[in-house]
């Protein structure tokens, strides 16, 4: 799942927002603050070096290595530094990351009530709906209903915990390992993980489902 259509908004807003971005970019180039290649270079970096493929590797390792998982839950950035991941995992947008674990009793959901704070190194660029005021408000107010709209139906006895990402701490989720994956390698497990699952708005599907 890559899109969420649980709320509607004026599609002209995207056109208006894109026009504002182009105008701002042009002004910054004109003032000599950035070059014409700067924005594309930054976007390319966060699409090819920093993204959900990193989060998937981290979660998969936690699934197969209990000692690593314990270190990850205690000190996320330090544990991640043990892995062979791109330089800068604790850099821009990832200075202070924390991960919380889903269990049969607890389901975690990450939002940002103020803006769109997001752990770019582990999840990539935030999706459009994550930044939408409607999602942010509704998820905080009625998380169970919003999760159901995403296709995540939880039993009433499962506790939902909300984690509010901010400039100080950026959260992501360690999903539950699905059944039927006992014989899979760490690399194979990583292919099952999605950014939505590591945000808490999706579950990881069993390969036998």
UniProtKB/TrEMBL annotation:
Matching InterPro entries, A to Z?
Answer: CN_Hdrase_a/SCN_Hdrase_g_sf, CN_Hdrtase_a/SCN_Hdrlase_g, CN_Hdrtase_asu/SCN_Hdrlase_gsu, Nitrile_hydratase_asu
Q: Where is the Nitrile hydratase alpha/Thiocyanate hydrolase gamma domain?
A: 17-202
Where would one find coiled-coil regions in this protein? none
EC id: 4.2.1.84
Entry superkingdom: Bacteria
Which reaction equation describes what this protein catalyses? an aliphatic primary amide = an aliphatic nitrile + H2O
Q: Which principal EC class is assigned to this enzyme?
A: lyase
Q: Where does Fe(3+) bind?
A: 112, 115-117
User: What's the name of the protein?
Assistant: nitrile hydratase
What is this organism's lineage?
Bacteria, Bacillati, Cyanobacteriota, Cyanophyceae, Pleurocapsales
């Amino acid at each position: 799942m890559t899109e969420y259509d649980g709320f509607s908004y004026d599609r002209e807003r995207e056109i208006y927002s894109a026009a504002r971005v182009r105008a701002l970019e042009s002004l910054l180039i004109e003032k000599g603050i950035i070059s014409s290649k700067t924005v594309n270079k930054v976007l390319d970096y966060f699409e090819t070096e920093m993204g959900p493929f990193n989060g998937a590797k981290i979660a998969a390792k936690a699934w197969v290595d209990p000692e690593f998982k314990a270190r990850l839950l205690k000190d996320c950035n330090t544990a991640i530094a043990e892995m062979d991941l791109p330089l800068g995992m604790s850099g821009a947008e990832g200075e202070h990351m924390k991960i919380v674990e889903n269990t049969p009793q607890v389901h975690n959901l990450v939002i940002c009530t103020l803006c769109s704070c997001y752990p770019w190194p582990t999840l990539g660029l935030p999706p459009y709906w994550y930044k939408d005021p409607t999602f942010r408000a509704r998820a905080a107010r009625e998380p169970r209903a919003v999760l159901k709209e995403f296709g995540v139906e939880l039993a009433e006895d499962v506790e939902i915990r909300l984690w509010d990402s901010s400039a100080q701490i950026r959260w992501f989720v360690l999903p539950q390992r699905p059944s039927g994956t006992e014989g899979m390698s760490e690399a194979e497990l990583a292919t099952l993980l999605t950014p939505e699952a590591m945000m808490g708005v999706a579950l990881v599907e069993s390969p036998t489902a």
